[in-house]
Write a structure and sequence with these properties.
16 helices, SH3 type barrels, membrane, three-stranded antiparallel β-sheet, elongated, alpha+beta, 424 residues, 3 domains
């Protein structure tokens, strides 16, 4: 291998020893490596990146933003150094040592280039919305882990001068230890496959998992963890396998349906519930929403009472309209005529079991939007109106006494006591 270099040096009338020829060979390797480094990094790589940034293709733009080109160039430089070492150096410890270093260099930058390719593919899939139902991050992390273990085995076998097959056979005897060490990645990989196969979770889904205080959008499904950006902008990490072993709520179906449920109740003071008088009926009949209801319901009640010839002098006989029933009918018609309520989904106003807080009247319906801010605004507007119209039906809302109520009672009792003392 050294004869061509010695021949050229002698042709130029240079008589060198073996050591001098070796140093000259090392100098040539270093010089060519530096020159190639500057040409590739500051010439070819910069030119390619500038051209890729101008490209209309997303993949090339992502490639220009990654470190793949630099890592490929380092990989090529390692190959060139190995070729020069074989060309200029004699067989011996120096050549063997350089080739070992070059091989390790090539392994490392080949692995780094593979990591860059996987990162580019992952970004491309996310931005193009391709196969987002799959746990891509977990799959790519698994590939990276396997590739890293393989490269590590090749490097160790190179350093100890043994075949990689021997190391692999040794690893077979350590299966139990490996299962323990890589328990979380293995469980995460299996969980990711199950989540994907059953379409249970994907990026962007609204996940709610109280056990881990997770309530927000899924931003990453990794090999061992799932990252959730909560609505307060905190990040919660949930073990991937926990999504299989534990239960969680996925709000994706709600988002896809286009309607979000309103399910809220108000408490009516039961002492304010009574039959509607003729005067109250005439007043309520002026409502656009209630006019037809009162007319038809009143006709139905009168016909029923006439057919049975009830004695209507007492409220215990016959049928009559109640303010709570009319209030429920009004609320249902109000919801059915509301512009922001879905008419093709359930609309219901119902009584719940009475409690010490009064009689709950529950409003159950769906808005025509799933956007959080818009949904809350619609819900608030509906209940603003409900609270305002309750007195129109002769009803009262139940509310636990506050400090202001006790103060009013105290002032009233003081005035009563003062009047009694003056009259005495």
């Amino acid at each position: 291998m050294l004869e061509p270099l010695s021949y050229w040096l002698k042709a130029w009338e240079y008589d060198v020893t073996e050591n001098e020829a070796t140093w000259i060979a090392l100098g040539l390797i270093l010089l060519t490596t530096v020159i190639i480094h500057f040409i590739l990094h500051y010439g070819v790589v910069r030119f390619l990146r500038n051209q890729m940034q101008k490209s209309p293709y997303l993949f090339l733009q992502l490639l220009s933003q990654s470190r793949l080109l630099s890592r490929v160039v380092y990989f090529i430089q390692g190959i060139l150094v190995g070729l020069q070492a074989n060309l200029w150096l004699l067989q011996g410890k120096l050549l063997n040592g350089m080739l070992a270093v070059v091989q390790i260099w090539i392994y490392i930058y080949a692995l780094a280039a593979l990591f860059s390719i996987l990162n580019i593919l992952l970004d491309w899939c996310y931005k193009k919305q391709v196969a987002t139902q799959l746990p891509l991050n977990g799959i790519f992390q698994t590939i990276k882990l396997v590739a890293s273990i393989a490269v590590g085995i090749f490097i160790v076998s190179l350093l100890i001068g043994r075949s990689p097959v021997i190391l692999l056979s040794g690893l077979g005897a350590m299966t139990a230890v490996l299962m323990l060490v890589f328990k979380d990645p293995i469980l995460g990989l299996v969980a990711g496959i199950q989540l994907s196969a059953n379409n249970m979770l994907k990026l962007g889904d609204w996940l709610e998992m109280p056990k881990y205080n997770a309530d927000g959008a899924v931003i990453d499904v990794g090999l061992t963890t799932v990252k959730v950006r909560n609505w307060d902008n905190t990040i919660t990490t949930v073990p991937t396998y926990a999504l299989i072993s534990d239960s969680f709520k996925n709000w994706r179906a709600m988002s896809e349906s286009g309607g979000r449920r309103i399910k809220r109740s108000i408490n009516i003071d039961v002492t304010s519930i009574n039959f509607i008088s003729e005067t109250e009926m005439k007043k309520l009949a002026k409502s656009r929403l209630l006019a037809n209801y009162i007319l038809e319901k009143n006709r139905e009640v009168e016909q029923y009472n006439q057919e049975h010839n009830w004695d209507l002098s007492t409220a215990l006989n016959g049928r009559r309209l109640t303010n709570i029933g009319t209030f429920r009918a009004y609320l249902e018609m109000f919801l059915r005529n509301h512009a922001n309520i879905r008419k093709d989904m359930t609309i219901m106003v119902r009584q719940l079991a009475p409690t010490e807080d009064g009689l709950p009247i529950e409003i159950y319906c769906f808005t025509n939007t799933v956007v959080w801010v818009e949904y809350e605004s619609i819900q608030s507007d509906i209940f603003d109106h409900i609270f305002a119209v309750v007195p129109e039906f002769g009803l009262r809302l139940h509310q636990s006494p506050s400090g202001h109520d006790f103060a009013s009672i105290s002032r009233h009792l003081s005035r009563v006591a003062e009047k009694q003392s003056l009259s005495a």
